[in-house]
Every structure is written in C-alpha cells, then in structure tokens.
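**Entry details**
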Amino acid sequence: MKAEGVRARVRAEMTEEIKAVARRHLASDGANLSLRAVARDMGMASSAVYRYFASRDDLLTALIIEAYDAVGEAAERAAATAAAAGADFTDRLVAVGHAVREWALAEPHQWALIYGSPVPGYRAPEDTIGPATRVVLQIAAIVRDAFAAGRFGPQPEITGRYAEELAAVADQFGPGIPPRLIGAGMAAFIQLCGAVSAELFGQLNNSVDEDRRGFLEFQMRGAAAFIGLI
C-alpha cells in the first residue's frame, strides 16, 4: 500500500476512535463535550486531536450527522421491509415508528443529542440539514405513495400564512401533494419524536410501565388517522 493510502487509513481509524470516545462522553456528560477530555482519555495531547477536529463544534457536528443518518437509515429500512411484505400505508408508518423507537432505546444519548435540548453555544451547520430530514422525508414518502394510490379523498382547506408555508414545503418535498397532507405528515413526525422522548426522558413512568411499544403504536395509528390513512 502506498504511503498516502496508509496515512489515509490511519487518519480514518483515528477519527473513528475519537468519535467513539466522544460518544462515551455523551453517555456520562451529555453534550458538554471537551476535546481536551477526549484527548486525555485517548492518552493524546489535545493538540493532536485538533488535527482531526478543529473545534468541539466540528466534533459535535460529526456525531450529530452520524446519529441522524443512523436513525434515518433505520426508518428507511423498516419502511422498505414493510412495503416489500405487502403492508398497507398505515402499517408502514407504524413500522417506521417502531424502528425509530428501537434505535433510540439502543442509543439514548445519541437521541438526546439530536432531539433533546439544544447544545448551548452550538449552531448546526448546513451539513446537518440533509441527515436531519431523513426520518420526516420517509414519512412524507409514505404519504406521497398513498396519495399516488388514490388513498385520500378531498382535503380540508388550510388558509393563512401557515398554508403558504406548507405550500412552499410541499413544492420542495412533495410536489403535487396537497399542503394539508404535508402538514399532517410533519405532525406525525412531531408526534413520533414526542412519544419516543416521553419514554426516554421518564414522562411515562408510573403511567405506562408495561407496554411502551403498545403506547408507541397507539400514537402512530393516531397519526395515521389524522393524516387520513385510516
């Protein structure tokens, strides 16, 4: 292997190791990351870590993008599997919800990083926008496919400034789909995030302790009804 290839491989391996150590810090310290603390855990000088990530925010951005991509991939895989099995549109939406919840339960600190409280002083760059939309775009894809299949009847009209904003979103993410359906799909995404966060952050304690999977399914079927899939 040429020297350039060796250096590239070593850099990639070191980058992954830094991110792995940073994820452990997420588990113990939340998003209060410190490059110096990461360097200390790795037995490196902090100046060495800065060769891989120029700042704490750069490291946070890398972790955020990977988390969004991971939960987005889980949602997309679940939807594709459900569709291949002949599931109807409601069950595809439910499958997405379960996949997102299962990922969050396996990666609660990464969930908190991307869907919890904003990190003080951190401003997400545009690089995060695409990964951040993967789950909601998967929900929009289910709505789009249902619309193309003639699943919906006449839609109630939405007026005012919100209607204009929804129309702009529909033009970008769901051309030809009534804005009301785009809004309902967005609401389903918010309901999904709220249901998962309620479980992870303890809001269901002493109220829903036995069947939280059932709670999530109830929420997603309610979202499907609001969209008009049921």
